[in-house]
Design a protein that fits this description.
The protein is mainly beta. The chain contains 3 helices and 15 strands. A hairpin with a 2-residue loop joins β12 and β13. It starts with 7 loop residues before the first strand and ends with a helix.
Length: 279
């Protein structure tokens, strides 16, 4: 199905944590929405809302710690629903809300406590429930080892779960699908797909390339692993092996002395030129 990229849609609901049925729809107030997804740190959400009627000044929905439920995309191609907790609200006729993914709430308070006669998976479920995750978003793999005592010693819930996940050889993370505490799922399909369109029906808004477009490599090395022989193999492309190709530059020769022309692009020519410079 062809996607109409001019039909951009936002859905934004906000309300108290753990009360998904009581959240107010603010989709009609959205002026802009930016979501920074990250697997290594907390994801960030920034929404700009219009407040021409000044109604948001008296709104309880924008209180710190409230949950913003958002999704965006095009008709028929929407993103997964994301939930973030608000951390900062500023503005007047336009209001800017900054929020972070829910796992940041688990990383604010250092706790010291003891769990007795439990398994690692039971502890993970207990901590998840304390932090507002319902059973419908659990993805917790059951463990069988019963521990007499498991201590959380002056560490946040997030750090504690990361700690016990490593002991189990598990992954722990929170994403758009819920709370995860399980072994690596190597058989699952890729979770993200990047598409490059060549039919010229899309509109490029902007792009950025970091690199020196004037630079040319003097050599290119490709390294791979031969699984049959169990050894590393390498192939080199340089002046000697790739003579006459403009994509590879001659090896540079820099000195503070008199200039010496090095016109030969072969390795022997470069070596001879460097010898002249050395004298």
């Amino acid at each position: 199905m062809a996607i109409d990229r001019a039909d951009v849609q936002f859905y934004v609901r906000v309300g108290k944590p753990n009360s998904p049925l009581e959240r107010a729809d603010m989709s009609g107030r959205v002026l802009s929405l930016v979501f920074e997804d990250s697997s290594s740190k907390a994801s960030k959400l920034k929404i700009t809302l219009h407040n021409n009627d000044l109604a948001l000044f008296d709104s309880d929905e924008l209180a710190h710690g409230n949950t913003f439920e958002v999704k965006w995309g095009y008709a028929g191609a929407m993103s997964p629903t994301r939930e973030c907790s608000s951390t900062k609200v500023t503005g007047d006729l336009t209001v800017t809300v900054e929020a972070q993914s829910k796992e940041t709430v688990m990383n604010r308070v250092l706790r010291t406590r003891t769990f007795e006669n439990v398994t690692y998976s039971e502890v993970a479920q207990s901590v998840a429930e304390e932090n507002g995750f319902g059973a419908d978003v659990f993805d917790i793999e059951e463990t069988t080892e019963v521990l007499d005592v498991l201590q959380q010693a002056r560490i946040s819930d997030h750090g504690f779960l990361m700690q016990i996940a490593r002991k189990c050889g598990f992954d722990f993370y929170v994403d758009a699908t819920g709370f995860h505490f399980h072994g690596r799922k190597l058989s699952t399909k890729p979770k993200k797909r990047f598409e490059y369109y060549t039919d010229r029906t899309g509109t490029i808004v902007s792009f950025k390339v970091d690199g020196d477009i004037t630079a040319k490599p003097a050599a290119v090395v490709s390294v791979a692993r031969d699984l049959a022989k169990k050894e590393t193999v390498a192939a080199v492309g340089d002046d000697k092996t790739t003579s006459g190709r403009a994509a590879l530059a001659p090896a540079p020769a820099l000195a503070n002395g008199p200039a010496v022309a090095i016109s030969d692009q072969t390795g022997a020519g470069v070596a001879e030129g460097l010898a002249k410079l050395a004298k």
